[in-house]
Every structure is written in C-alpha cells, then in structure tokens.
Design goal:
Helices cover 27% and strands 23% of the residues. It is built from 6 helices and 9 strands, in the order H-E-E-E-E-H-H-E-E-E-E-H-E-H-H. It has a 5-stranded mixed sheet with strand order 1-2-3-8-9. The protein is elongated. The protein is of the alpha+beta class. The chain has 2 domains: 84 residues, no CATH class; 38 residues, no CATH class.
Length: 155
C-alpha cells in the first residue's frame, strides 16, 4: 500500500520509505514510537531546527525586498546587511501525530512538550469501554496530552 502511494507521488517530490521496527529517530528531526492498537501502529514526532524570524520593518529599512530576501536567507548576508541585522532567533517547533492507539507510553512521549499535537479520538468519554475494547482514545484521553497554551487566546 505505502509503496503504491510513493509510486504515484507528484514529480519532484522526494518520498522515501524509512522502515522501522521500534522507537527512535528515523530521519533528521523525525522520531517514531510504537503505539498500542490491535495491529502494529506507530506515532511520529517532527522537530524543526532553530531558525530566524525576519522583521519586515528592518528589511524595509535596509532596502531588502522580493527575491533578495531569499538570497539573504540563503547566504547569510547581502550588500553588507547580515541576516542577524534584520531578524531575531526563533526556537525550533515540534509536531506530534498520534493515531489509532489506546493510552500508552509511546503516545505520551511523542506528545510531551510539542507545539502542535494531532491526536485521534474515536470515542467520546461516555464510550470508554468501547475505546478500551478497540484500543482507541476517548476525547478526554486525547485531550490529556494537550500541550499547555504558550499564550492566551483572544477574541
């Protein structure tokens, strides 16, 4: 099935299979953990490297616009302007994908401290017995792993 999906990927998209049979890194910035389901199931965590956030007002003051912004990002400097002069550090962000699982250590490890969590919950909390029987999460169980908000929501 997976090989068929890779075979029909859009031209120019570099998709490669990374077989795994246990926990750990499978590619740079990508790790996997086994989950608890009726069949073999895995969850994933993706962590991007630290980066920089460009400051539009500093770019404008330096006269850097359009495709020159890409050149500055690629080369680190342009016409005497350093990337550090027009940007601020941005910490890495992380994302976890946890599907088709009952509560387990692997899901908790993947979800711990991420910026964004996608966790499937097949059953409501009222159907906890069914969730346990079929090894799925309830909505409340999935919500248990939600990361704390980094800033308050505004209306």
């Amino acid at each position: 099935m997976i090989r068929a999906l890779v075979a029909v990927a859009s031209p120019g998209v570099d998709l490669r299979l990374h077989p795994h049979g246990g926990p750990g890194p499978i590619a740079e910035g990508v790790e996997v953990r086994p989950l608890l389901h009726r069949i073999e199931t895995y969850g994933y965590r993706v962590v991007e490297p630290d980066g920089r956030s460009l400051l539009p007002e500093r770019l404008a003051a330096a006269g850097i616009t359009g495709s020159d912004i890409s050149l500055l990002q690629r080369d680190g400097s342009l016409g005497g302007v350093r990337l550090e002069d027009v940007s601020v550090p941005r910490p890495a962000q992380s994302f976890a994908f946890v599907m088709d699982t009952a509560p387990c250590d692997g899901a908790g490890e993947l979800a711990n401290g991420v910026d964004l969590l996608v966790a499937e919950s097949t059953f409501s909390d009222d159907d906890g017995d069914l969730a346990a029987q079929y090894r799925h999460l309830t909505a409340g169980q999935a919500g248990h792993w939600l990361p704390p908000p980094k800033r308050a929501c505004s209306s």
